[in-house]
Amino acid sequence: MAFETRGNGGYYYRKERENGRVRSVYVGSGETARLIAMLDAAYADERETKREVERAKRAEIEAHDAALDELSRLADAVAAGVLLVAGFHTHKRQWRRCYGLAYTEKKGNIATGDDAKMTNKSATLTTTQSCDDKQISAEFIALVSSVNTGKPKPADVEKIKRMMSDHNDLKLWQHFAGLAESCELTMLEFASCVPAGLAILWGERQAQMRRDLGYDDAPEAEKYLISHVALCYLRLMIAEFQLTLKLSGDHNINVGVYMEKRLTDAQKRYTRAVETLAKVRTLSAATRLIESRTAAASAARSVNSLRAMKLITE
């Protein structure tokens, strides 16, 4: 758009694109044309401001989704570790149980590692028996609170690491919310489009979902996977709400396509989290069943051997 001065008069032309070419369209002349040009410039600035706000919102959404994708990769790593320890291996992208010598060696290596951990834990307990656990915990909480600032002191950070290493038996990290729970709170805070009352209800829904999935009685690895399922479900609800909000108001096709893509990604992420938890629980249950049957068969063989020896001696 341009207001052009030719001789003693002013003329306003709009630039329009047609069939890949830009052409000038005459609007008017004089002071009226000047006012129209000023209004068009103000509308253009308003549209650019809206585009900047939309770009900032998209960047924020993509940053949170990238962090959630990283948590998904971490959940896959946790699941793989649980299954490897349980005696499974991957064959053509499928988890299968190890049998024979290889599985025995793995179990032996795992037992050796556990013995080493127990030895280190006993040594740590011996060195910290004279310390007051409550005092150590209070000092740790105060130190972490002081470090959670914009510019933490490197000495304080190193002290936290040292305290967690020296007092590993106290499990000081349990004084703070888990990673998934912290992400839930952050996600509800950044989703400014979600009303406060709805956010409270969703937070309670997350807690109920964890209870329904047996969070309290689950092993530590499964607790993380359960929290990840709840987190992915929360992101799915937020994506659905954002899409509904956009489609109910003024929007263009690009915004609609973008929000639908985010919803599709959230659905895939949630499905993947549920499948990971189900896979770990199914295969772990199968392992426990096989081990219990093996123990029962071994006990039966021992009883039969004792009976045979008794008959021979008689």
Task: Summarize this structure briefly.
The chain is mostly helical and 314 residues long.
Fold and architecture overview:
The chain is mostly helical. 74% of the residues lie in helices and 10% in strands. It is built from eight helices and five strands; from the N terminus they run E-E-E-H-E-E-H-H-H-H-H-H-H. The chain has a three-stranded antiparallel sheet. Helix 1 (30-85) runs parallel beside helix 8, helix 3 packs antiparallel against helix 4 (154-166) and helix 5 (179-190) packs parallel to helix 7. Residues 101-130 have low confidence and may be disordered.
Give the helix proportion (percent range): over 70%
Q: How many helix segments?
A: 8
Low-confidence stretches: 101-130
Mean pLDDT: 75
Coarse structural class: mainly alpha
Q: Which band does the percent of strand residues land in? A: 5-15%
- Sequence of strands across the biggest β-sheet: 1-2-3
Number of E strands: 5
